């Protein structure tokens, strides 16, 4: 019958703690810490001497530590900041009303559901912190996300004032273009205004008119008059557009009577 011998080697952390007793400077600082005279030093739960919450390494152990770090995958992936962040914190302004300012982010890499969803789109109201969690797919384009934004957010809360996101400029540009197209706020040269304005008689709150948060509310006869004036402008511009289109098309045609 053969018996196998199992030897458990101590970790690098424990090796460093054991080596601290061989360094005269660290031994002295440990004694001062015990007397309460070393403010910047402390003792960890496992008996290691810490300087500003970091383990003190004996001078002759530096090479061993460097060799261990060079072979450790986790150590190579961790990039600890060594400088204070530049500039002071600039917090966002506090919204004046709920669901006027939101932040959005994407949770990706999730297990695929039965319907093929692998992404959760999180839209959070900056004021109330209430949120919507919208499932999606990693293959969705910015235009598709804009359509979901219309059906899931604008349908319930209206057009928002601002959206905070950490997405790149290319995604943001395509998202806004898709959102404007879905809302009908894109300018149409044929009618001289956006479809939303033609339909409702007022401009939709959009990135091009953020200052119109407190938009004018028209009631009764004023609303009827404003709507009638807008319709007359649309009719006039439609006639102008049709006349221009006809003049361009008639260049390559000839007049025939049957």
Automatic annotation (TrEMBL):
GO terms for molecular function: nucleic acid binding. Signal peptide: none annotated. Gene3D superfamilies: Ribonuclease H-like superfamily/Ribonuclease H. It comes from the Eukaryota. InterPro entries: RNaseH-like_sf (IPR012337), RNaseH_sf (IPR036397). This is Pol protein.
